[in-house]
Amino acid sequence: MVIPGHVAIIMDGNGRWAEQRGLPRLAGHRAGTENLRKIIEECVNLNIKHLTIYAFSTENWQRPPDEVSGLMKLLETMLDRELKSLHKNGVRIRHLGHCVGVNKRLVQKITEAVELTSGNSKMVLNVAFNYGGRDEMVRAVQGIISDGLGVEEITEESISDYLYTAGQPDPDLIIRTSGEYRISNFLVWQGAYSEWYFTDALWPDFNEQELYRALVFFGKRERRFGQISAQIV
Ligand code: IPE
Ligand code: IPE
Ligand code: MG
Hints:
Elements: E1 6-10, H1 14-20, H2 25-45, E2 50-57, H3 65-88, E3 91-96, H4 104-116, E4 123-131, H5 133-146, H6 156-161, E5 173-176, E6 195-198, H7 208-219
Helix pairs in contact: 1-2, 2-3, 3-4
């Protein structure tokens, strides 16, 4: 199996998963979190070096307040419960996104998780939380201007260096669950040449088998990056 260096996942469909069972939406998010634990573990086993998960978008604040606070709580619980074993497994946690509007205790926990795991090198787990691709670009431009970069210093590389993913390779494979075919403000810059895999499976049902299917799909792609087949070795 071809193992991509960087896999990114839009974990979508928790709400529908719950609705189908007559459960509150938060029960779907809880099930989604359980599933995430397994998928992270499997990605570590598969020796995937970078895994990016979309946990909460800058647009998700517009959801009903109890869903938003439930999601915040879930992330906190997840950090409390999983940090130790992630650290033990050599996972380095990075946060993609900003902390404006996020409650202090959660910010503290995110910071602790990032710091504690900063020396790990088995896998980088990017948690896109309070993340938006456009917001990321706005911040990059602000950073570039405040650092006083000259016009000639504005290159694809320097822009990449101002994104949350600075220093990391672009995603090779982006998976979106739940049968939606859109980018929803995820890795807008970094995903320029990613392979996309869509599945109807709702996120809590996206198991190891589904992950292998996505990887098999990825292995069959010919990535041409603008060239023609004959040029690809
Ligand atoms: C994805 O599931 C999780 C988050 C956006 C936090 P959804 O909550 O979007 O589930 P659906 O799309 O309503 O089914
Ligand atoms: C994208 O899912 C965000 C996350 C998975 C965290 P959404 O469910 O919020 O996306 P839209 O709004 O349907 O495009
Ligand atoms: Mg959704």
